[in-house]
Amino acid sequence: MQVENKLLDDLARVAGGALGALSGLRGEVEAQLRQQFERILSQMDVVSREDFEAVKEIAVTARAEQETLAERVVVLEAQIAALAAQVKGSEG
User: Fold this and answer.
1) How far is it, in rounded angstroms, from Cα 55 to Cα 75?
2) What's the gap between Cα 31 and its chain centre?
3) What's 11's DSSP letter?
4) Domain locations along the chain
């Protein structure tokens, strides 16, 4: 019985060591992948997240201003048409 417990303890220790080694290996693989991705991205012409968000905010603001100006143009065109109609009516 004593031998079986010792054998189970040894197996548990080996399994624990193997899991520890696998965890360490996983960390190394992740670090290597991260380095490779960073190297590839540094060679590519990509923008940072901060730059992207800043330009996105500028685009949203510009779009809102464009929509406001488009609405103003419609109102002004209607006013011009009304004035033209008044002038035409007073001439005739």
Assistant:
1) 30
2) 22
3) H
4) 1-46, 47-92
